């Protein structure tokens, strides 16, 4: 079921088109990646979904229906810039936000305590936001976005400022919310997180959609131009093979950049004629490589 549908959504600022006809669907239980270089139109798109600004064209549907103010109760938002007040206590602030989104005071407080415990920081209940480190403020922002168990969750650079342990903690939480049915619109510049979490993506480039679909299917559209080889002994002569562009070598193996995937067989033959091959793989492009290829020059 489509929780969120954008159909040809347009936003214009004076003579600047910030979003030019974005179409995408986020289903129940899905994490959808919204990607693009700086200024591509991601924040504008998220703000339209949240009803903070209105589209100049196209439609946004929530559970099949157009926007109304009650939808604030089924949406959660973690903005890239911290959205919480520095001088207000965590409990006051998050409980207030949860009540605004339709929760009873008691349920809100229980939910906040659950999340603080879940993130192993129950003592933050009485702390002011400004007393917390940047990463812990980010965690509080995350709790504020999910405390009311939204059906549609919008995450903008959700893991920024977090150490690796906390990134894993939040990542597993995001996966859990997905498994419980939350539709998640996930925007980030960190392609490795997108690879791990999202099935479908849209890449925006200067306000337009340039790549869209399932990551697996998108990757199959691009040539495979890297071969990974790990061997017991040294391999000589890889650079001289026709179609090999260059070879990166470290103690674990060789990453061979090729002009077409067919060269791979020659690489394997060459290696096997000289030593024992431990691992051989024709690598598909990473999302990062695809992103740079499509959007490379677009930073404003
Ligand atoms: N309030 C505004 N008034 C005028 N132009 C705006 C406004 N907000 C955004 N823009 C322009 O719209 C375009 C898209 O901006 P947007 O903030 O949506 O990009 P983004 O993809 O979120 O970028 P980033 O990755 O840097 O956050 C940019 O050219 C930006 O300058």
UniProtKB/TrEMBL annotation:
ABC transporter domain span: 4-231
Annotated SMART domains: AAA
Family: Belongs to the ABC transporter superfamily.
Record bears the keyword GTP-binding: no
PANTHER family: ABC TRANSPORTER ATP-BINDING PROTEIN, ABC TRANSPORTER ATP-BINDING PROTEIN NATA
Keyword Transport carried by entry: yes
Family annotation (SUPFAM superfamilies): P-loop containing nucleoside triphosphate hydrolases
UniProtKB keywords: ATP-binding, Nucleotide-binding, Transport
GO molecular function (one): ATP binding
InterPro entries assigned: AAA+_ATPase, ABC_transporter-like_ATP-bd, ABC_transporter-like_CS, ABC_transporter_ATP-binding, DrrA1/2-like_C, P-loop_NTPase
Protein name as it appears in the record: ABC transporter ATP-binding protein YhaQ
Species of the source: Paenibacillus silvae
Top-rank lineage group of the source organism: Bacteria
